[in-house]
Amino acid sequence: MSAAVKAVDKELAELEASGRREDEEEYIQACLAAASEEEKALLSELDLLTVVRGYSTYEPRKEETVKAFVDINEWRKKVDYYHYFDQHLDKDELFYKYWDEEVYGEDQYGHPLVTIRVKDIDVQAIADMDHEEMLRLQGQKQALYCRYKAKVSERIGVQRYKYSVIIDLKGTGLNLLGGKRKAVLQQVFSVGADYFPESIWKIYTINTPLLFRGVWAIIRPWIHPITQAKVNMFGTAAAAVKQMQADGVPLESIPVEMGGGAKGQSAFELLKAEIAAQKAANASSGAGASDATAAAAPAAADAGAHKVATEQIGHLASV
Question: What is the distance in angstroms between the CA of the first residue and the CA of the last residue of the chain?
Answer without folding.
Answer: 22
